Amino acid sequence: MxxxxxxxxxxxxxxxxxxxxxxxxxxxxxxxxxxxxxxLWQVVTxxxxxxxxxxxxxxxxxxxIVAGLEQQxxxxxxxxxxxxxxxxxxxxxxxxxxxxxxxxxxxxxxxxDA
Length: 114
Known about the structure:
The structure is a single chain. The chain is built from four helices and no strands. The protein has two domains: 1-30; 31-95. It is an all-alpha fold. Helix 3 (52-71) packs antiparallel against helix 4. Residues 1-31 are annotated as: Disordered.
């Protein structure tokens, strides 16, 4: 049996991954990114309520996160900038996430895909 080409393997992987995503949507399974975004928002908003202790916590988190990003090859100042923008965005108290329209389940549900 001849080995499959790289193009064939990539096409098969893309089909498998598409099926995994389709099944995850069907059962409304959040991705790790969905959880990470919500977790960061919750930590920031809770820390904001704690005044000086919360600011200290956010500063420590920033340092640890940026250190990890540096180990991956990212620029430290750019990493701090992105982190600070997220903290400012999440600090305004407004829930920042858009509805996941693909999760609508009922016919006629305004959040369902058209």
